[in-house]
Specification:
Blueprint lengths: L1 E10 L5 E6 L4 E6 L10 E13 L6 E10 L2
Parallel strand pairs: 3-5
Antiparallel strand pairs: 1-2, 1-4, 2-3, 4-5
Length: 73
Amino acid sequence: MSKFTGTVKKNDLEGGFWELSCAGGERYQLQGGDSALQVEGQEVEIDGEVESASMGIGMVGSILSVKSWKKSG
């Protein structure tokens, strides 16, 4: 499991999905978590696994399977 820090964003492509935008430019489509994670502009730290072999409908990057998360800062 790895840690990821970034900003939660709503992407309206293909009906909409939530993504994590990291400071280094990486973007991950979020899978899992709860509704409290899905807040536009929220800064978070996520413990999870990147499913590098999977690509979501958004095609923004790999899917990040969320195991746990917390607000950062």
